[in-house]
Design a protein that fits this description.
Number of strands: 11
CATH class of the largest domain: Alpha Beta
Distance between the termini: 32 Å
Helix content: 10-25%
Shape: globular
Number of domains: 2
Strand content: 35-45%
Radius of gyration: 18 Å
Number of helices: 4
CATH topology of the largest domain: Thiol Ester Dehydrase, Chain A
Order of helices and strands: EHEEEEEHEHHEEEE
Structural class: alpha+beta
């Protein structure tokens, strides 16, 4: 099943250059995934939830203020505990402006653990075996911590950043990353190629530590807990 959803780019979705921000792009993708779940009768359950593990996003042409985008999504593969979802984003001229893929797990909220995707749930999504990335690029990066960091900061999670699962909403990880990337890299661009690896949930009131390093054209932001014993996420933003 292919599902389409329109997304209007308003003031809250743009940066100072009137361009769609990466966080707003993720919000648009997430809304479209939610539309698919609604059609599959698997939306906002109190017993089960899809939990996001990975994003891989490539912006081909940066959308601008006042455009209406059409986002197309589908379930690419469901394999036991995991599900893979792809996206294509088109502008009003029908130009392909973004491709993305994502990886999810199915979570039992009552038992607090990962479970296999039930056949009736997987079948409801009507998987389409179509990939937006070529085979050699279709894998997600492995969790690899940088050996050294150039700078760090602390950040406290506020109530407005929490999602329906009572965790830090996935789009805010990009916003946190923006706070530590040096001004000379972030002031005049949105990175057109980025990945997010989610490792452990962050909750309301948590104080996290954020670390930054640059490796060639990659800007790597690592988020850890306050005593630096656990890694919550790694965000990789790349200059194309």
């Amino acid at each position: 099943m292919f599902v389409e959803h329109d997304f209007y780019i308003g003031f809250r979705d743009i940066n100072s250059r009137k361009e769609l921000t990466n966080s707003s792009m993720l919000a648009a993708l997430e809304d479209t995934a939610g539309e698919h779940s609604f059609k599959a009768n698997n939306s906002l359950s109190d017993e089960h939830s899809w939990v996001l593990l990975n994003w891989k996003v490539r912006i081909l042409k940066r959308p601008q203020y006042h455009e209406t985008l059409t986002i197309k999504t589908w379930s690419r593969c469901i394999d036991k505990f995991y599900a893979f979802r792809d996206f294509q984003v088109y502008n009003q001229e029908q130009d392909l402006v973004c491709i993305a893929t994502s990886k999810w797990i199915y979570f039992d909220l009552k038992k607090g653990k990962i479970i296999k995707v039930p056949p009736e749930v997987g079948n409801a999504y009507q998987t389409e075996h179509v990939s937006v990335f070529p085979e050699e690029e279709n894998q997600f990066l492995k969790l690899k911590l940088p050996e050294t960091y150039e700078k760090s900061m602390e950040f406290k999670i506020t109530r407005n950043m929490i999602d329906t699962n009572h965790h830090l909403h996935n789009i805010y990880y990009l916003d946190i990353a923006k706070e530590i990337i040096p001004e000379e890299y972030i002031s005049n661009q949105e990175f057109d190629n980025f990945e997010v690896i989610y490792k452990k949930e962050i909750k309301y009131g948590d104080t996290i530590k954020v670390f930054y390093t640059k490796e060639k054209e990659k800007h790597i932001v690592t988020i850890k807990n306050n005593d630096e014993t656990e890694t919550h996420a790694i965000i990789i933003l790349e200059e194309l």
